[in-house]
Amino acid sequence: MTTTRTKQLHGKVLLHGTLSCRSGLRIGGSDGELAIGGLDATVIRDPLTRQPYIPGSSLKGKLRSLLERFFDKEFNHNGGTPNNPIWRHECADPACPVCRLFGASSPSRERGDNLPARVLVSDCFLTEESEKELAGIEGGMPYTEWKTENGLDRITCAANPRQIERVPAGAVFAFSLVYAVGDLTTVKEDLLHLLTLLRLLEDDALGGGGSRGNGRVGVTLTAAEVRTRGFYLGTEPAKALPLAAEGSLAGGENARTLSEEAARYLATAVATKTTKAAQ
Ligand SMILES: [Zn+2]
Hints:
This protein is 27% helix and 22% strand. By secondary structure, the protein is an alpha+beta fold. A hairpin with an 8-residue loop joins strand 2 and strand 3 (87-88). The relative contact order is 0.21. The chain binds zinc ion. Residues 89, 91, 93, 96, 98-99, 104 line the site of zinc ion (ZN).
């Protein structure tokens, strides 16, 4: 028996914005390469520019884990190894808000029932302005600061200081999320979840050492637009979505308005296309 499977693409929704560090940010790189500098823990850097950046995988992983907790999903999948397990949630249910957005591999490879991720998260690089500002930092490493953290032996009271490299507070990274529209009935809910996650991220932490004050970020949405199939065919312009007043957060009331507007616009565009095709 053959099963026909289609995954139509109706368009894309793009969300652009900035992540502003309100505290030092630590996303670890390879510690081996910089051992001479004497730092125990270094940040990840772009190999060409040497600038620190936030890998898309780190941001995506953080957003996914926030959504898993938001919906109280069971951590049923080991993405690591038996000796070094990394538990997370994964299922093949298209109604699952987490796996629908962020993807899930098929439990049985032959069945082909994996859910491809609907959202792409790009690597986040320093904005031009922030790059100039950080270039002037005094210290051993370009664009970053060193922070000394102290472990205290509870019995001998001996201190065990170690130096941690962080991106300093005030640094600003640009982010972009691209949502692929495959199912018109879930656009509104998916976008609302994405925007809610960006808002939640502000009250959580990105990268390492969150409980010790690292990784606080402010999220600002600077542009949101819908690109229909017509946009890619050159017959329609992109549709800009309404944003809240400058500087305000991504979540809340504005998130609902934006999600509804995107869903309405896409539904109309697809209905128009269907009507035209029938004529
Ligand atoms: Zn799931």
